[in-house]
Design a protein that fits this description.
By secondary structure, the chain is of the alpha/beta class. The protein is built from nine helices and 14 strands. The protein has an eight-stranded parallel β-sheet. Helix 3 runs parallel beside helix 4. The radius of gyration is 18 Å and the shape is globular. The two termini are about 35 Å apart. The structure holds 3,4-dihydroxybenzoic acid. 3,4-dihydroxybenzoic acid binds next to loops.
């Protein structure tokens, strides 16, 4: 099952997509869809603040360890019908985290997926890669990826995407996860989630920039990592004649960055740090810049450049 985005740009599930007000701002923007913050079985307050540094020195990017603060899936099930009134697809990001109910992750994903599909979500984005929990991300363990996908894909009939960790130093794991994905009817793979376990220091105070210390890195610093991951998945799915689309996430702060993602094979892009920096106006500006780049360079549609990076 596919999901079409017009324009092919959304927010990346992240800090300013938690509350109804934040989601409504995205729904009113030029974004092609609204992606919620990853919702969990139980509501979560998240990690102690400060837990987000939007601007790292030199505008290298942003660093956060939010700890999945969210309203809990039952609250999102209530909000979704209202959000749908803005006429764009609502993509519900879903994650698992240990809570008082002690349900195994596949059971959590299943329960949330069924309720959220029932509430009218247009697609699910399974976040298998939150870098800031005690647990090792599911995306790092192929059998766990399989268990979650089995639990969810059989239970819903809306498009399902997965959000993955970067596998830039683990080629074997990349191959095992990619092969696992082929066994399921997925709409898309969103890659990459933030670069995990990164750190920055404020030299004025000589402290870490966020209270949890380590966090997920996004923004310009991760662009080359994201491009490589997008391209590897794109080539892999092509080789295996899979219909799974790749959505590029990571390092897009200007139109040229998005254009690079498209050349590497992205069918759509998501913005995290840029959305933090510029708010909802970022979508319109980025889309205008992408269209201007295409026109200036003699292309009449975006489809003409998807996956068209040349070998040297
Ligand atoms: C959080 C979750 C993520 O998936 C991510 O990339 C960064 C932060 C979080 O809520 O901690």
């Amino acid at each position: 099952m596919k999901i079409e985005l017009h324009p092919p740009i959304t927010n990346a599930s992240g800090p300013h997509s938690v509350t109804y007000e934040e989601l409504e701002r995205i729904a009113r923007s030029a974004a092609g869809a609204v992606v919620t913050k990853s919702m969990t079985h139980c509501p979560r307050t998240g990690n102690p603040e400060p837990r987000l540094r939007a601007h790292l020195d030199g505008e290298l990017g942003s660093l956060n360890s939010m700890g999945l603060p969210n309203l809990g899936y039952q609250e999102y099930a209530q909000l979704i019908p209202k959000l749908k009134e803005f006429g764009k697809p609502i993509i519900a990001s879903v994650a698992s985290a240990t809570c008082e109910h002690k349900l195994p992750p596949p059971v959590q994903y299943h329960e949330i997926a069924v309720a959220i599909a029932q509430a009218g979500a247009d697609a699910l984005e399974l976040n298998l890669s939150c870098p800031n929990l005690e647990e090792v991300p599911i995306a790092m363990d192929p059998p766990s990826v399989r268990a979650v996908l089995q639990a969810v894909t059989r239970a819903v009939n809306i498009p399902v995407g997965v959000k993955l960790s970067p596998y830039n130093n683990t080629p074997q794991l990349f191959a095992e996860v990619a092969r696992t994905l082929l066994d399921f009817e997925l709409a898309y793979v969103a890659t990459i989630n933030s670069e995990p376990l990164t750190l920055d220091i404020d030299l004025k105070t000589r402290t870490k920039v966020i209270r949890p210390g380590f966090g997920g890195l996004g923004g310009p610093a991760v662009l080359p990592i994201a491009l490589a991951e997008v391209h590897r998945f794109y080539k892999f799915f092509q080789q295996h004649k899979s219909q799974i689309a790749v959505w590029g996430v990571g390092g897009i702060t200007k139109p040229e960055d998005a254009i690079k993602h498209f050349f590497c094979g992205a069918a759509a892009v998501q913005i995290g740090t840029l959305f933090l920096w510029e708010g909802p106006q970022a979508f319109e500006k980025l889309w205008a810049g992408i269209q201007a780049w295409l026109t200036t360079n003699g292309f009449s549609s975006l489809e003409e450049i998807i996956g068209q990076v040349r070998e040297l």
